[in-house]
């Protein structure tokens, strides 16, 4: 993944995350998620959240894409997703507020959309209900298909959704339920 010239000229770089990035990941995750954990789960417990973040970090090192985002050499974010046979999931965009609103989020969202289209797979994202990322995903074409107490479950490439209709249409090359019903 290569950043466009506009982001490079602003001092941004994107690189694969490495085990040495653990402390930066924990710091960025706290800065990005503490307000939501406080809002939805009754408060941030540093000890517990550090264990959760550490476990998450080492699991993310094994998935399809796990990158750190640098701004003039300082880690300001992380981006990850897992590509599976039937979809792209476990999407995470963590970006410090100092780097937000400069085009990085849009670039990453567009990367997910492009990857979904190239592979003909749906993209699934889970975002906190009060996160501004929800609005950016919606503006890019993601749709809310379910919600929990704290999160919206969102998808892109709805015509390739999981389920019998999506599965049949992938096999037979159709994109609407009419094509499936004609074959039944």
| Neighbour order of strands in the largest sheet | 1-2-3-4-5-7-6
**Which percent range fits the helix content?**
40-55%
Series of secondary-structure elements, N-terminal to C-terminal: HEHHEEEHEHEEHH
Q: Assign an overall shape.
A: globular
Structure description:
This protein has 184 residues and is an alpha+beta fold. It contains seven helices and seven strands. The protein has helices at 5-8, 22-41, 46-60, 104-119, 133-139, 164-172, 177-183; strands at residues 12-16, 65-71, 74-84, 87-95, 123-128, 143-147, 151-156. The protein has a seven-stranded mixed sheet, sandwiched between helices. Strand 2 (65-71) and strand 3 (74-84) form a beta hairpin. Helix 2 (22-41) crosses helix 3. The longest helix is centred in the N-terminal third of the chain and has 20 residues, at 22-41. It starts with a helix and ends with a helix.
Write the layout of secondary structure elements.
Layout: H1 5-8, E1 12-16, H2 22-41, H3 46-60, E2 65-71, E3 74-84, E4 87-95, H4 104-119, E5 123-128, H5 133-139, E6 143-147, E7 151-156, H6 164-172, H7 177-183
Parallel strand pairs: 4-5
Antiparallel strand pairs: 1-2, 2-3, 3-4, 5-7, 6-7
């Amino acid at each position: 993944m290569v950043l466009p010239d506009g982001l490079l000229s602003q001092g941004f770089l994107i690189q694969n995350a490495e085990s040495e990035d653990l402390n930066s990941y924990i710091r960025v995750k706290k800065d990005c998620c503490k307000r939501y954990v406080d809002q939805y789960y009754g408060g941030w417990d540093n000890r517990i959240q550090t264990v959760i973040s550490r476990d998450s970090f080492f699991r993310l090192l094994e998935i399809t894409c796990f990158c750190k985002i640098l701004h003039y050499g300082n880690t300001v974010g992380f981006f990850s997703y897992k590509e599976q046979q039937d979809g792209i999931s476990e999407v995470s965009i963590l970006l410090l507020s100092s780097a937000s609103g400069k085009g990085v989020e849009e670039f990453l969202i567009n990367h997910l959309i492009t990857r979904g289209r190239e592979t003909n797979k749906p993209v699934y994202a889970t975002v906190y209900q009060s996160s501004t990322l929800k609005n950016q995903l919606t503006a890019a074409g993601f749709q809310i298909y379910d919600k929990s107490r704290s999160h919206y479950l969102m998808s892109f490439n709805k015509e390739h959704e999981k389920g019998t209709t999506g599965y049949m249409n992938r096999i037979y090359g159709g994109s609407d339920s009419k094509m499936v019903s004609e074959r039944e």
